[in-house]
Amino acid sequence: MTGAKRKKKSMLWSKMHTVHCEDIKQWCRRRLPILEWAPCYNLKENLLPDTVSGIMLAVQQVTQGLAFAILSSVHPVFGLYGSLFPAIIYAIFGMGRHVATGTFALTSLISANAVERLVPQSSQNLTTQNNSSLLGLSDFEVQRIGVAAAVSFLGGVIQVAMFVLHLGSATFLLTEPVISAMTTGAATHVVTSQVKYLLGIKIPYISGPLGFFYIYAYVFENIKSVQLEALLLSSLSIVVLVLVKELNEQFQRKIKVVLPVDLVLIIAASFACYCTNMESVYGLEVVGHIPKGIPPPRVPPMNVLSAVVTEAFGVALVGYVASLALAQGSAKKFKYSVDDNQELLAHGLSNVIPSFFFCIPSAAAMGRTAGLYSTGAKTQVACLISCIFILIVIYVIGPLLYWLPMCVLASIIVVGLKGMLIQFRDLKKYWNVDKIDWGIWVSTYIFTICFAANVGLLFGVVCTIAIVIGRFPRAKTLSIRNMKEMEFKVKTETDDETMHQVRIISINNPLVFLNVKKFHTDLKNIIQRENAASHPLDDISKCQKNSTLKSALFRLSRGLCSKDASQACLTEKWSLILDCSGLTFYDYSGVSMLVEVYMDCKGTNMDVSLANCTDSLIKAMKYYGNLDSETPIFFESVSAAISNIYSNKSLNKLSDHTEV
Length: 660
Prior knowledge:
mainly alpha; anion exchange; two-stranded antiparallel ribbon; 62% helix; 7 strands; 28 helices; 2 domains; Transcription Regulator spoIIAA; 660 residues; cell membrane
C-alpha cells in the first residue's frame, strides 16, 4: 500500500514538474521574442539583405545619434552610445521586425528641457573645468549626461510599470489622427531647433509655452547676423539630399544597392572643412572632439529623479506611442502580429538598461523604419549588424568626425524628418473621410507646436474621448451586441450538386476606434467557428493556431478538408454580406477596418457585399480604399445583395455552358 502511494505521489510530482517547465518555456518565448525567430533564421535568404540594411542603418544611427545628442544638450559622443545599446535590448525583447530603436528627436527635445533647467549653460563657468575620469570630458558635460540618463532611467521605469499593469491594452485610445498630428508637430519643433545651425545664428535656449514662436521672433530680429557660409552649405546639402533620395525612390526597383548619400555627404563635407579650415577661416561650427571607446557603466544620479518626473512621463508616453505606431505599421505591412504590452516592456528596458551606459532617452524613428523597408531588411538581425558598425565608429572612426560642419548635420536631420512632415497631406484624407477627425488633427497639431509633444498627445486623447462620448448617446443603439449570423444554402442545377453558402453578418453598433479591434476579433471568431463546423476534427487544431482574419477567410473560401471529404469541399462556394443597417456612425478607424476586411476577403477570392450603407459611408470607403467601381459591392438591402450573388452565379453558369 505504501509503495502504491509513493508511486502515485511521484507520478503527480513529475506531472506538476512537466507542466511547470512547459509554462516557463512558454513565458520565455512570449517575453523574449528572439527565442521565436532566431532559431528559424534563414541564413541563405535573409543574411544578405539584413547585412545591406544594417550598413545603411548604421549610417543613419550615427548621424542621428550625433545630432540628437546635441538636440538633447549633451556631448555628441553620448548619441553614439544611445544608438548602440537600445538597439541591442530591443532586438532581444521587441516584436517589430523593422523597428530600429535608438536616439529619437522627440524624446531628445523633452530631455533637453530637464538638462537645460538643472544644468544650464550659464553654470559652465561656475563648474570646475578639470577633466573628469569619464573619457576626459569636463565635469559640466558629465553633469549634463547624468540628468539625461536619469530621464531615460525614470522614463523606462514608468514604461515597465505600465507593462506590469497591462496598460498596453489602452493603446486603442491613441487614434491615427492623434498620433499623426503629434508626430508632425514634434517634427516641426525639431526643424525649429535646427534653424540656428542651418543659419549659423547663436540662439539662446528657449522653451516653454509658445517657445516655438519666440524662436522665430528672435531669428527675424537678428536676421542680419545670419552666417552666409553656413546658409549656403545648408542649402546645398538639403538640395543634394532631397534630389538623391528622390532618385533612390524612383529607381529603387532597378538598382540593387541604394546610394548612401548621408554617408557620402558626411565624408565630403568633413574633408572639405578640414582642407579649407572652415572652422578658423569662416567661423563655421563643427561637431568637435569625439573621444574613443565606451566608459564603464555607472548608476544614473538618483538625487535628480524627483526633479525630472515631468520629462520622464513625457519620454515614456511620447516615445512609446511613436514607436508602437511604427511597430503596428510594420506588422500590418508584413502580415505578423505585435503585442502592445510586450512593446512596453521592450522599450522600457531599452531605456532603463542603457541609462547605466550614459545613453539619452531612446525610441523608434520613422526615418530608420522607412530605411529598413527600402533596403529590404527581413529581421532584427539588420539592427544587430548595424550595432557592429556603430562600435567601429565609436572605437576607430569617431575622432575623424571632428570636422563635420553642424549645418550639414542639421540638414541631414531636417531631410530625415520628411516622412513626418509630409503627414500634412493626411489632412485631405481626414476631411474626405471624417471631418471630426480632421478637426482633431488640426487642434492636436496646434497644441503640440504651442506647448509640447506630450501636451498635444494628452489633448488629442482627451478630445477624442470627449467627442466619442458625445456622439454615442445620439446612436440608435447604445448596447454593443454580438453580431448576428444567418446562413442560406441554395442548391444549383449543375451536374455536380454544389452548395453556395452565404454568411450575413449584421453590425449592430457604431464602428469607431474604441471597438474596431473587437469587431475584427468577433468576425475572426465567426469565421473560425465556421471552419470548425465545416471541416474534420483533424483540421480544427490547424485553424485555431492561425490567428489572422485573412487566413481564416482563406480556409473558409478554399476549404481545409481531409482526403475523404475533398470532393465535397472543392465544390463549396462562399459569400459574405455585411449588413450595415446598425452602423449608425463611424470614424476613420472604422472605415479603415471595413476596407481592410473587404481587401482580405477579396484577396481570398471570396465574394463580399455591403448592404444598407449610408451615402456618407459609401463615399468614405470609396475614397479611402480606391474601391473598384466596376464590381458593385454596395447594395440597398440584404435581399438585393443576395439577388446579385445569385444572378452572378447564373451568369457564370451560362458562360461555362457557352464555352462548352
